[in-house]
Amino acid sequence: MLLPGDLEGDLNLVFVAFQRRHQNDIDHWLRELNEIEADYEGLAVYEIPLLMRFPAFYRRWIDDGMRSGIPDPKTRSRTITVYTNRREFLDEVALPDESEILVALLDREGGMVWRHLGAATQEALRDLTAVLCEITTHRSDVDDALDHRDSATSNPEGTGLSLGDVDPS
Q: What are residue 149's phi and psi, to 5 degrees?
């Protein structure tokens, strides 16, 4: 799996945790997001524990332990453990350290549309909701324009712009 390209949503909300204690912040976010997640078709949510690189034997052992510690199938299916150079990751996303979780909204191409560091706050939830609303309203406008154009042409198949397509290569 290659991230962010292999994420499934048109929009992907990722929670990157660096320390075990970060799970409490992620759980709080997820409780707050229950209603929001259902309101936005195409939004996928992922938990990404970011660990330093380990030899394959240790990764399997860690993965098995984490899987057994996540009894909920929905949570388990959206948890992706990443083994990487943490310093390079922090530099890439311009984070000073690993003290707080990174919450990032990524578009289909992996571009970071919105981000927040740390626990869920009412302000952060309002900001995220506003960004989701703006993006999905814009997409709806584009979809409406394409539907109108397609119905006005002799091409009933509607070939044209397809939002969210990714080159599989």
A: -60, -45
Closest to 50 measured CA to CA, from 80, 94, 30: 80
CATH number of residue 61's parent domain: 3.40.30
Cα radius of gyration (the chain): 18
Out of 80-84, 102-106, 151-155, the most confident range is: 102-106
User: Cα separations (Å) of 21 from 24, 91, 100?
Assistant: 6, 22, 10
**Residue 36 corresponds to which tokens in the numbers above?**
């929001």
Structural domains of the chain, count: 1
Q: pLDDT tens digits, residue range 14-46? A: 999 999 899 999 999 998 988 788 888 889 999
